[in-house]
Amino acid sequence: MARLLCLTTLMMIFPIILCLTTSAAGTASDTLDSGSNITDGATLVSAGGSFTLGFFSPTGVPTKRYLGIWFTASPEAICWVANRETFLSNTTSGVLVIGSTGSLRLLDGSSGHTAWSSNSNTTTASSAPAVAQLLDSGNLVVREQSSGDVLWQSFDYPSNTLLAGMRIGKNPQTGAEWSLTSWRASNDPTTGDCRRVMDTRGLPDTVSWQGNAKKSRSGPWNGLWFSGVPEMERVSNSDAYSNQVVVRPNEIAYIFNARTDAPFSRLVLNEVCVLQRLAWDPASRVWNVLAQAPRDLCDDYAMCGAFGLCDMDTTATLFCSCVLGFSPVNPYGGGCRRNVPLECDGNGTTTDGFMVVRAVKLPDTDNATVDMSATVEQCRARCLANCSCVAYAAADIRGGGDGSGCVMWTNYIVDMRYVDKGQDRLYLRLAKSELDIALRKRRGVAKIVLPVTASLLAATAAGVYLVRICKLRGPRQNNSSGKKVMPGTESTSNELGDEEDLELPFFSFRDIVSATNNFSEANMLGRGGFGKVYKGMLPINREVAIKRLGKGSRQGAEEFRNEVVLIAKLQHRNLVRLLGCCIHGDERLLIYESCK
To answer: Which residues contact 594 (CB under 8 A, 6 or more apart)?
Structure first.
């Protein structure tokens, strides 16, 4: 009878227990209360559903269990791992508990051993009850229940992933560091050989290390972006994401932030030391690679050695060259050396000067000194007074102009490359004789470039002006103005104004066709945005260059007259003289004297 009563009672209670268990499992919590635990198979889910904490096995390794945090929409995207160095071998034995002092402990239930504890990460002990909560940022936070004070958070102990709101950097006062460390392999979360850290010995600079060797770096922070990553400015101006570097007595760190409705984004340092910025595409449910470092060979650290300059856009087979005033140490690499020693007596007396190197990632600042309170002019004077100083630059380029602050390099510069829209002013110290050579080279280039540029601009202006004129007036078949007309030409219409003798005749289209052999390809000299240019021989046995233009724009006769007067009087020994024009239907042609 007693046994029957016991069975009856159990049958009545069991559905209630089952109902409660199902309810608890169906509504995932984001909080672990003091004295509670999570076993393998259970999870915490952030309030907005973005992140999940629980147990997982890496792909292809079902016998190893880890406690981690992942994107709920993409479970394979693991953001953080607690027990990276000590996996659990039993798929049902893992238990996460929170103690009365606010410490988290991951237990191996089969042996009772602690596989991981937040105490090992210097958790602040508390005598008051504490709770652990998974936030919608992906941060697992342990708080004192009554005061809400944070005792520990996973964001202070990154794995291989940086989420929005996390940081890479260090605390100068305590030496604490926040850095990314790679997995050993794509399916092994054990700490690998690669690290991404904040280098604070000069200007803030994020650097990838593999073991004891530098692999790549972003370039020093210039107030707006890391000088080797100018595209960061475009990201920082977007609505979705922003980048910042904070410099405080207790913190020097890089942080990227995201708007609450922005697509998920993360920075991941993989096992081969490549840092990738990934963005989640909800429609296709894939992670797209937005950027990565290193992006090419020129991002490999010290690719071209001391005083070398790397350029991926060069057409040469070798990407490395020396900055002006330097020559290769040997044909096979090894950096560059000065052609002429600096002239410095140690008392600040020198004839040295500076050459500007533009559009570059600034050199490594490990051997640099920084003074944010100095002006750029003060920086120049300090560099000249220091015989070991080889270059200087503004430390902060915000506000336009020359910038502010001072960073000075001593003895050498290394790991410099050309970057599209890179930092525009690095002042490289050279001996006076080398500066004179550089100046002569630039003057030589200017002697070629300036006249050619002026000629092109004048020819373009003349072309535009005359096209407008010719749209108003067609060719005149007789010399109604009574002016003298060259054989093979037609006179300009005097309706444009009698007070100025323009002396710019119209040429017969028939003669132009004949002169260019009906615009044959054999007579074509070249082409550009304003049309094609042909060589031709006029009936008066005069060789000319004929530009065949497209349609011009409309303008009033008075404006055209003023422009023609200007062109007619425009003369320069380096400019090709304009002889006249021709209009025939939709054809607009300009006739220049031959350059021959």
So the answer is: 535, 542, 543, 544, 545
- Contact by Cβ (8 Å): 292, 274: yes
Q: Which helix (H) or strand (E) holds 380?
A: helix 376-385
So what's the pLDDT on residue 476?
A: 42
**Chain centroid offset of residue 320 CA:** 21
371 in the same domain as 258: no
**pLDDT tens, position by position, 497-528:** 343 444 567 788 888 888 888 888 778 877 65
Residue that terminates a domain, selected from 382, 398, 430:
430
Q: By CB neighbour count within 10 A (0-12 exposed, 13-18 middle, 19+ buried), where does 546 fall? A: buried
Q: Give yes or no: residues 145 and 173 share one domain.
A: no
Residues 6+ apart with CB under 8 A from 596: 543
Residues 267 and 317 in one domain: no
Residues 125 and 193 in one domain: no
Examine the domain organization and report whether 393 and 448 are in the same domain.
Answer: no
Q: For the sheet containing 104-108, what is the strand order? A: 37-39, 94-98, 104-108, 114-117
Work out the number of other CB atoms within 10 angstroms of the CB of residue 295: 13
How many C-beta neighbours within 10 Å does residue 286 have? Answer: 11
186 in Cβ contact with 197 (< 8 Å): no
pLDDT digits (tens, 9 = 90+) for 24-45: 334 579 999 888 899 999 999 9
Give the CATH number of the domain where residue 541 resides: 3.30.200.20
One domain for residues 220 and 270:
yes
DSSP state of 123: P
Residue 449 lies in a domain: yes
Residue stretches of the chain with pLDDT short of 50: 1-26, 122-123, 236-237, 443-449, 470-502, 552-564
DSSP reduced 3-state for 529: coil
Query: For the residues of 154-174, what is the DSSP string, one character each?
Result: GGGS--SEEETT-EEEE-TTT
Task: Return contacts of 242-246, CB within 8 angstroms, 24+ apart.
Answer: 245/204, 245/221, 246/167, 246/169
Q: Which amino acid is at 352?
A: D
The CATH number of whichever domain residue 289 belongs to comes to: 2.90.10
Residue 230 in contact with residue 422, Cβ under 8 Å? yes
Does residue 15 sit within a domain? no
| CATH for 96 | 2.90.10.10
Q: Of 411, 430, 449, which closes a domain? A: 430
Cβ-based burial of 513 (10 A; exposed 0-12, middle 13-18, buried ≥19): middle
Alpha carbons 197 and 367: distance in angstroms, whole number: 18
Number of domains in the chain: 4
Residue 88 is classified by DSSP as: B
Residues 257 and 312 in one domain: no
Amino acid at 364: D
Q: How far apart are CA 35 and CA 94, in angstroms?
A: 16
Domain with 360 in it: 299-430
374 and 478: one domain? no
Name which of 553, 550, 560, 518 is nearest 536 in CA terms: 518
Q: What is the DSSP letter of 368?
A: E
